[in-house]
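Entry for flavin-adenine dinucleotide complex. Fields follow.
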Amino acid sequence: MSHAQSPDSYDAVIIGGGPAGSCAAAILAEYGHRTLILEREKFPRYHIGESLIPFTFQPLERIGMIPKLRRSHFVKKYSVTFVQPDGRRSQPFYFFNRYDRETVAQTWQVLRSEFDQMLLDNAREKGAEVREETTVQRLLLTDGRVTGVEATDKSGRTYPVQARITLDCSGKEAFTSNRNGWRMRDPYLNKIAVWTYYQDSKRGEGIDEGGITVAYVAEKGWFWHIPQHNRMTSVGVVAEAKYLTRGGVKEPRQIFDREVEQNLWIKDRLSTGRSTGEYFITSEYSRHSRYCASPGLLLVGDALAFLDPVFSSGVMLALKSGQLAGEAIHTGIIEGDLSPARFAAYGATLRQGIENMRKLVYAFYDPQFSFREVIARYPDAAGEITDCLSGDVNKDFSQLWSRIREFVPLPDDLPYGDPLEQAANVPVT
Ligand SMILES: Cc1cc2nc3c(=O)[nH]c(=O)nc-3n(C[C@H](O)[C@H](O)[C@H](O)COP(=O)(O)OP(=O)(O)OC[C@H]3O[C@@H](n4cnc5c(N)ncnc54)[C@H](O)[C@@H]3O)c2cc1C
């Protein structure tokens, strides 16, 4: 089936071997297309983003990962719970109230170094070639069409790779949207995150052991509490930079400790444990690429859009976009047409999902919003909220949004995500 013949010529070259790149590669390689992943790091490598949501199930099943995850030591996750700053907890939103308990409704809290390694190895098993410690430097262009990439390996050798299609799966680096001027900020979602890992902090029991807890911070922020295997817990705080650094506090550890002191539930949970002593900080602005594709190029995962992580949607969107990209490219190769127009449905499906999740994120950050009040007025809204939190985002939520709009305003859809039919005006170097 493969049409690419020369050693440096592939059907698809993929920038980045995270969940988006590995998922797309597994599908393309399984179909028999010559597929190459170029990954800057040596795996296993550290990555934040450890809580999966139920609708990772379908792409993980598609690429044969479910049996491997069932054999893994990752903690099983069945629910999400919200906690007020004074310690009052919502009932857990159990995913099995809406989805099959044996499949979709049970997901995992993973360690990304291990999870991403499993995904990359899976792509290799399906036939993808992977070159680690290889950095993509620029895109190759012929008459405005992307025809591959130029990459540098760890010995410093720089060489071209030709491909019918290039997938940008570069994550937060957003390789092509940064270089093309396609990167659009999300004006109200400008947050920073500070996090660490605790050993032996308190956690729930039975099916509640692996539940994620989102604990509100007074000023438009929240803690995550993610129980992992090996008695470890990932715990972090996300809020506006100006709030977290108030009074000139800049040290990640000081920021973290001060917020813990103010959150009764988190303070109690951490009271029996101890931090590993390593603290991380990132300013993660939600952002969107204006376009999803241009001639010879397709954007996938965080490289397409990154949404505030409050509802743990990132890996789901990365895997889902990887799956959709793999299938769309396969069909395009078979039908001899990889023009940008082929990816219009791809872009529209992902934008619909992102916009639905984004509305719930905006509601969450509005000080006037409370899940409890919405559900008190509309008890059946709990089901739809659970669906969105599960990642079942490609459905009609218009009733839920009009109900929530009775409490708080919600944003309009952003006009992004179509393919760019013509070659990019700005050369990508
Ligand atoms: C604070 C925080 C908390 C989060 N929590 C969650 C969570 O609980 N659950 C969740 O699902 N998501 C979470 N996320 C989001 C999640 O981390 C991402 O959405 C997810 O990793 C996206 O996958 P990806 O494959 O698109 O990109 P990545 O996983 O980032 O992979 C991109 C890969 O590309 C490689 N690369 C980049 N540039 C180049 C280059 N030039 N050449 C070669 N290789 C390159 C990188 O080395 C990397 O391995 C969180 C994010 C943040 C910031």
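NOTE: The chain has 13 helices and 20 strands.
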